[in-house]
Amino acid sequence: MLPSATTTAQAAAITLAPLSVPEPTLPAIRRQRRSKYILNPALFVPLFYAALLYMAGIVLAHLHYFRPGLLLASLAPIVAAAAISISKAPRIVWLPIAALWFVLGLWSAETEPEPAANPVILSYSDGLLRTVEGSIVNAEPIRNNRIDPSIIDPSLQDSDSTSEPASNSQRTQQVDLAISSVEAISDTTDAMQTIAETPSARVRITIHWPATPHPSSSQPLDSLQCGQHIRAVLRMLPPDTFHDPGVWSLPNYLASEQISATATLVATQQDNGEPRLVLTGAPAINSPPCWLNRMRTTASAQLETLPFLTRNLSPPLRATPEDAAMLTAMLTGDRSFLTHSLRAGFERTGSFHLIVVSGLHLAILAGLVLSLAQRLRIPRLAATAVTLAITLAYALFTGFAIPAQRSFWMIALYLIGRLLYRSRSPLNVIGFAALCVSAVSPRTIFDASFQMTFIAVAAIAGIAMPLLENTLHVWSRATRDLTLISIDSRLPPRIAQFRVTFRLIAHHLEHATSHHFAWKLFPLIIRVLCRLGELLFVTLTVELALALPMAIYFHRITAFALPVNLLILPLLTVIVPGAMLTLLLLLALPASVSILAAIPATLCLALLHFSLWLVHIFGSFTLGDLRIPQPSFWQTAVAFVCFIAALQLAHAKQLKPFMQRKLAFVAMLAMSLLALWPRAIDHPANVMLFEAIDVGQGDSLLLISPDGKTLLVDGGGLGLPFVSAHQANHTEFDVGEEVVSAALWSRGIRHLDAVALTHAHHDHMGGLPAILRNFHPRELWVGNNPPVAAYESLLQQATTLGVQIHSLHTGDTMPLGDATIRVLAPELNYRPGPQPANNDSLVLQASYRTTSVLLAGDAEAPEEHTILAHSKAIPATSQVSSPLDTSLHSTVLKVGHHGSVTSTRPEFLSAVSPQWAVISCGRHNRFGHPRFEILEELQAAHVRTLRTDTGGAACLLLDGQTVTPDPGCLGASEK
């Protein structure tokens, strides 16, 4: 049926057209671009990087002077720029803030007063006998002394004094005396002068006590304690040191300890019946520092009784004096009982920090106390307070040195953050502690212990732990609660897959073993292996990071530090608590039942002996302890930049985990390699360098040829040629290690081409064993010396190290690169006496073109006459390449026998006819070297003379035609 017209019309009438709606003009939505990540921003750990900038300012102030007023004025615009950046340009706000921390470091370093000796005390430190009065502010425990004190200090032998034989003085004690009055001596007056009470008005006295009281002695004292008032007759002297580049400075150290002078005293010495040391009637001072000092002394004395208490036990459980010394250093911080041989073993294996009080010991104590508090269900606040109190008390007991301070503040910050349930950034804790320590004393950052602690802790918290978070940490946690399948869905796919695989393995193990082993013991074994892997990685990271400070301060590559620390560190967590318990029992129990302290001591000693065995095994390997020179400034700077890069890469969250670990490890490896990379020897080009190293009363001479070949003649010693070999071998100070080696390393010397020994007196030979160990020369040159024990031991050591020994005589010549060494003495038929003598000396002449150096050793008049006669007997021939081959004429003379009147006779000096003379002797030596007659003789001959006692290390440059002094070495400044 067709629709009607009406229907069609109605339909058309109701049809509606769509309304046109304008489209909104909205801005296009742009997809945010993802920035390409390079390095994590420094603001990730602001306090840590603030500490770095602050310390960088201190370092720059150490290198260059800035006016404090200008620095202070520059802070205002920097603060204004920071405020503007916060409101206007927050993206660059880090720039003015970084500048602010840097300038604050500059300002704090420039405004810190330098430690200096008290000028009043120095004015009285002239070597005259003076009566002083004062109070003892620090007293160290008494230790055994092997050398006659009158040998060490010639002032102890006076014609107007009487005392018991010095050889009976076998114990020494070091005390610090705060002087209240001193005897002022002039031509007209002799009276006591009051000294103003200042912290630096102190003198450090080494007191020699008799092993047993003499029956006729009226001396009632056998030791001194902190707080006592004494009157003493002393010869005060300013602290002295060896003036060589790279050698540790005793005056700077004593100035930091507020010590202005030193003195030595024999307790039983008397003047006309009056003792030189007496207690005054003033009451003793009972200040907190003295109370703590007496506690440390008492603790050291109690630990010394361990060998007696354990004398009946088997050897593995029996304490030796060395064990007692180690426990004393470990618990009280007193290292005075550690022998040189014991220290050397731990130093060679890079584990010396394990046997002395350090931050590690405080951390172990804090962890032990906190763990016990938790097991006793002590509330969190009380447990934190008790832990902090006990840790602070122990830090104060050990003397509260800088390492203890740093560790305590780090522990305190960690525990307080834990108490407040705040997220703790380990790097922020490290940065805050470093800022506090460096703000209190900016020069602290130049301390080796500060730098090593800072770098080691930063490497653990900033590199090792972040890299382990996505590896071993994750796998270790994944082995827990394996039966809870529901938690797999909340884990990353690879971890969830690991748990599924682990369950399959556990199911198979359950059928083969038992349910307990498969689901309990096996996951526990995997977790232990993961923990061992974590410990290995952390230790490796620390060893790589510490390669730089180890090279700078200790000149060592400790190849076995990793396994030794890895094995001993877990043992230390048992040794330290056991030793502390032993000490508490020794202090608390009466003498009649003190044997009970041997119970915890046995476990402690057994583990300690095992640790010593490990140190001995690893320390016996020659390759385990390689000595290297200190890195150059640029090596150090670039290595530290690599360390910062490793810190940044370890937190690079937008990098792939594998790439993150790889780049961070490469940066750490680059830091280590830069620190250990060989540097060129520091010597001028195209000249022969001659250096007289300041070794006190002794000889040590360095020759470097124009092409870099090295010869060391003698190695110094105690400066006491009459000290017996037995006495010398028991001294704790090794001039070869501490002085000569340090001077050679400062020049970048790794190996010596040759070492020459003039004669077998200890002031020439004493340092050579350390030189042979540290520098492994190819050749050892000797003359004709009597076969005394020390000399034979040196030859045996050279043979063991593979050093070729050459016995030289008159007429021999030895090449040294572009230079030539000619032997002038001894004669081939020379026969020495039964004991070493000065006339045994090997006399050498080093020639470069028309310039030469004559090294006379200790040759006296008889040997000089022999040299003159032999020189005149050789006729000149056409085959002689230079007049120097037959003549004694030399442009430089190393004066024989330290300037004694027995050497450098007028006819010998006339034959040599030098332009320059160098005298190697010690300050305040008892022989009066150099003698005034020799100085007059050199002056009359118009010979320019250098002396090591007044100018320190002396260097001359021989270019083949002229001789000039080296300003970089002459009168070397203390470092």
Topology (SSEs and partners):
Blueprint: H1 5-14, H2 46-63, H3 68-88, H4 94-111, H5 119-123, E1 129-139, E2 143-144, H6 149-152, E3 169-185, E4 190-194, E5 202-210, E6 229-235, H7 250-256, E7 261-266, E8 270-271, E9 274-275, E10 277-279, H8 288-303, H9 306-309, H10 321-332, H11 340-348, H12 359-375, H13 380-397, H14 402-419, H15 426-440, H16 448-469, H17 472-478, H18 493-512, H19 515-545, H20 547-554, E11 556-558, H21 561-588, H22 598-619, E12 625-627, H23 633-650, H24 657-676, E13 688-692, E14 701-704, E15 710-713, H25 725-729, H26 735-746, E16 754-756, H27 762-765, H28 768-775, E17 779-782, H29 789-800, E18 804-807, E19 813-816, E20 819-825, E21 843-848, E22 851-855, H30 861-873, E23 892-894, H31 906-912, E24 916-919, H32 932-940, E25 944-947, H33 948-951, E26 954-958, E27 963-965
Parallel strand pairs: 5-7, 15-16, 16-17, 17-18, 22-23, 23-24, 24-25
Antiparallel strand pairs: 1-3, 1-6, 2-3, 3-4, 3-5, 6-10, 8-9, 11-12, 13-14, 13-26, 14-15, 19-20, 20-21, 21-22, 26-27
Structure in words:
- By secondary structure, the chain is an alpha+beta fold.
- Among the domains are: 42-111; 119-286, Beta Barrel (OB fold (Dihydrolipoamide Acetyltransferase, E2P)); 688-965, 4-Layer Sandwich (Metallo-beta-lactamase, Chain A), CATH 3.60.15.
- It has 33 helices and 27 strands.
- The strands form five sheets. Strands 1, 2, 3, 4, 5, 6, 7 and 10 form an eight-stranded mixed beta sheet that branches.
- Strand 17, helix 29 and strand 18 (804-807) form a beta-alpha-beta unit.
- It is a multi-pass membrane protein.
- Residues 148-174 are annotated as: Disordered.
